[in-house]
TrEMBL record:
SUPFAM superfamilies: MFS general substrate transporter (SSF103473). The chain crosses the membrane at residues 21-43, 49-69, 81-101, 107-131, 217-244, 250-273, 285-303, 309-327, 348-370, 376-397. Gene3D superfamilies: MFS general substrate transporter like domains. Keywords: Membrane, Transmembrane, Transmembrane helix. This is MFS transporter. Pfam families: MFS_1 (PF07690). It comes from the Bacteria. The lineage of its organism: Bacteria, Bacillati, Actinomycetota, Actinomycetes, Kitasatosporales.
Length: 416
């Protein structure tokens, strides 16, 4: 364990990395807290769950649309300045949204939530774009993307749990204000980190025409695969709740069961990132999708059991199927980084977030329909179906992805 942590310590010992990573983690923790805090605040104000869900949805739509735009601006301007502006603006917008939850008409509440989401700083995208500038060592870059994928899994466990605890202790409205402060302060702290202040717009390297022609196909395929792997998590949340309801168990256990899969993912990501990886990023990603699909395909076995036994079997299957999730996420980040020019990195990684949100929304909607009309067991097959489709798409686009992720040679970088 000590050796594993020491390997990740190498990342934090890179010049300027520690301050940037710590403050960014605070801002990213708030990203996982705010949707839950907003939902609870609207309900606490006496409005219906439909209105609360609509407000949370408006925030998600604003974020999915706004972050790629913010990322594009950050790639073309001083990132630290853009982040400070967004950190202040999103704080004000969240204060307005919190007030609107109590006093404003529903349309105004939705508008405030939409604006707050659009102004959310793309700190996660910025950090992922930062790692290639901090090191040229390929092993460290691979480890950094594993760290990113693992940290994301951990934050999605910690954030909702923390905000729920805060809401129960001090109230949902106050918890939303705390989340807004954490986001703003984390963003400002990240923007003031030396490596972020020193960032200057990078000059995009123009690739040969043949590669430029294949890059859109490769990027769209990988982004769609990322959306599908995000859909598995939201589809699974619905399927697990449906199974618990079918066997007469409390659906409150769904959160614990899903957290067990995330815990398996965190462990898998930590171990995966600490080891040297051979082969191409594409080949590793395909292998991980195969393993992930096979692991998820076993989940319906839990529906064959009853009562407590079904819950225990499902927990074991979820932990096992979770171990490849963060490693697959690491390779997804690596693929996006490999196929993106330096001058478009933040925008590209912000686009990843948009596809994740779109995939999550589609996954939960599709699983809900399947669970309602066909039952829990077919719904438990939905996650495997999502990753299987991602695998088919990635394999079909093998040549464009290989061409788009092959490093430029000296003559290609400097054709003159």
């Amino acid at each position: 364990m000590k050796g594993l942590l020491a390997r990740y310590g190498e990342l934090l010992r890179l010049p300027g990395a520690r301050d940037a990573v710590v403050f960014a983690a605070c801002a990213r923790l708030a990203v996982t807290m705010i949707p839950v805090a907003l939902l609870l605040t609207v309900v606490e104000a006496g409005r219906s769950f439909g209105v609360a869900g609509g407000a949370a949805g408006a925030y998600a739509v604003g974020s999915a649309c706004g972050q790629p735009v913010s990322g594009r601006i950050m790639d073309r301007a001083r990132a630290s300045v853009v982040l400070r502006v967004l950190g202040t603006a999103v704080f004000v917008a969240l204060l307005g949204t919190a007030g609107a939850a109590r006093h404003a008409p529903v349309a105004a509440l939705f508008g405030c939530a939409l604006l707050a989401g659009a102004l959310a700083p793309p700190v996660g995208a910025s950090v992922r774009a930062l790692w290639p500038r901090l090191t040229d060592d390929e092993t460290l870059r691979q480890r950094a993307y594993s760290f990113e994928a693992t940290l994301t899994e951990f934050l999605y466990i910690a954030g909702p749990s923390l905000i729920t605890l805060l809401a129960a202790t001090i109230g949902a409205f106050e918890a939303l204000l705390v989340a807004a402060v954490v986001m703003a302060s984390g963003t400002w702290g990240y923007a003031r980190a030396r490596v972020v202040r020193d960032l200057r717009p990078a000059q995009a390297v123009s690739a040969p025409a043949a590669r430029r022609g294949r890059r859109p196909v490769a990027a769209l395929t990988v982004l769609t695969a990322i959306g599908l792997t995000a859909a598995l998590s939201s589809a699974l949340a619905v399927a697990v709740a449906a199974l618990l309801d079918d066997i007469g168990s409390t659906t409150a256990l769904a959160g614990v069961l899903l957290a067990s899969q995330s815990a398996g993912s965190v462990v898998g990501g930590l171990v995966y990132g600490s080891r040297h990886r051979s082969g191409t990023t594409y080949a590793r990603y395909v292998r991980l999708l195969v393993v992930l699909t096979l692991g998820l395909a076993l989940l319906p076995l839990a529906a064959l059991a009853h009562g407590t036994v079904a819950v225990v079997v499902l927990a074991a299957l979820l932990i096992g199927s979770g171990t490849p999730i963060a490693p697959a996420g690491a390779e997804e980040f690596q693929l996006i980084g490999d196929m993106t020019e330096d001058g478009r990195m933040t925008q590209a990684f912000a686009g990843v977030g948009s596809f994740i949100q779109a995939g999550s929304a589609a996954g939960s909607a599709a699983a809900g329909v399947v669970a309602q009309h066909l039952g829990a067991s077919p719904a438990l097959l939905m996650p495997a179906a999502c990753t299987a489709l991602a695998l088919v798409l990635v394999c079909a686009a093998r040549r464009p992805i290989a061409a788009a992720t092959t490093p430029l040679g000296p003559l290609e970088r400097n054709p003159a």
